[in-house]
Amino acid sequence: MGIEKDKPIAVPADTSRRVRPEILVVDDEYFNFEMLKATLSNEFSLSYADSGTSCLASAIANPPNAILLDVCMPGLDGYDTCRLLKNTPETENIPVVMVSGLESELEQKAGFDAGCDAYVVKPFSVKTLIEKIKALV
């Protein structure tokens, strides 16, 4: 068998079909997910979980490229959810970006101590959030 020469290389004409990283948004307020979806859907494919428990189940069943995790949620808060994610073999390597209105250094330290890879304070710049996510995926 010889090597074929002069065979054309197929290049997709439509670059808008590029694969977008999958981001799991975890927030007890669906409105926040809708806002993120409106601003991030050009860059990422977004899915939604409304609690820490559903986040864990979803991340194990369909591992995303990254997780945007709200800190203040009833039941499992963001810190506990992050600790569980980082201590579960199926999810330990998924980057977690905590998103919170809690801006003190103590709160941010608690996020990093729980294992988050980035901490973004609300209100945030969409550009900054996209840059942080892209740096992790």
From TrEMBL:
SMART domains: REC (SM00448). Residues 22-137 form the Response regulatory domain. This is Response regulator receiver domain-containing protein. It comes from the Bacteria. InterPro entries: Bact_response_regulator, CheY-like_superfamily, Sig_transdc_resp-reg_receiver. The keyword S-adenosyl-L-methionine does not apply. Pfam families: Response_reg (PF00072). The modification 4-aspartylphosphate is found at D70. Keywords: Phosphoprotein. The keyword Magnesium does not apply.
